[in-house]
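Marked as duplicate of an earlier ticket. Keeping the data here for the record.
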Amino acid sequence: MKQPKPPLLKNIIYAFLFGGGICTIGQAILNLFVTLGVPEKQAGNPTVATVIFIAAVMTGLGVFDDIARVAGAGIAVPVTGFANSVTSMAVEFRREGLVLGTGSKMFALAGSVIVFGVVTAFFIGLISALI
């Protein structure tokens, strides 16, 4: 079966612009925390938490998927994509209850990312410590 070729250049440009926009917003949030008195080395943690919160709220409101259709990997690859995968599963299975629905299904998509991220971080940390 033949499929039309995707508009590769357009997709790359959109991913770049949206990914860069997310980074710019993240930098603005980090600068805000530094302005509020958080030391610059420690401002990264609340910045990431804020970006995750914003992406989760956007997912809950149904806005994230609309943006993702245009932005592609530019919004899916950063931490916003992780927040979307966790939140969307929680929203989808909320009718099954808090424990058996939301709690157990929330990490169905993101679980593999967590596992491989932790394992990779362990081995990189081990290699770094040995060197």
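See parent ticket for discussion. The longest helix spans residues 8-35.
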